[in-house]
Design brief:
Elements (H helix, E strand, L loop, with lengths): L14 E6 L15 H13 L5 E6 L11 E4 L2 H5 L5 E3 L5 H13 L9 H4 L11
Parallel strand pairs: 1-2
Antiparallel strand pairs: 1-3, 3-4
Helix pairs in contact: 1-3
Amino acid sequence: MSSYSIRPFAARRPCTLVVCRGCCCGNARKHPGTDHDAQLRRLRESAAASDGRFEVRTSDCLGPCGQANVVVVQPSTEARRRGARAAWVGWALDDDATDDILAWAEAGGPGVAEPSTTLALQFVAPPEPGR
């Protein structure tokens, strides 16, 4: 018999970046000055190199299209148990925004580390339920 316990994956989920890539976010026609593919590739490569500190997922449309590109920074399971909630970041269009998001996720994200002042200024309200 093993001396360690196996916990379900959900019990130990790390900080997760949910990157919107729907109708407006990731759209080169709406934001032609942003290399959306390079941004997503960089986020994924950083997550792969983070030794499990954070993950990246994509979503079709998260809702606040007027603030595209949107990235939701979800807390780890443990931080959520302590009361942390997801932070919605809008206008994540350039390398500086990507740098700030990555630094926060690498440090643990919501409930574990404070976001940079610049990143906090980019927080947006999530869409209302049912929209």
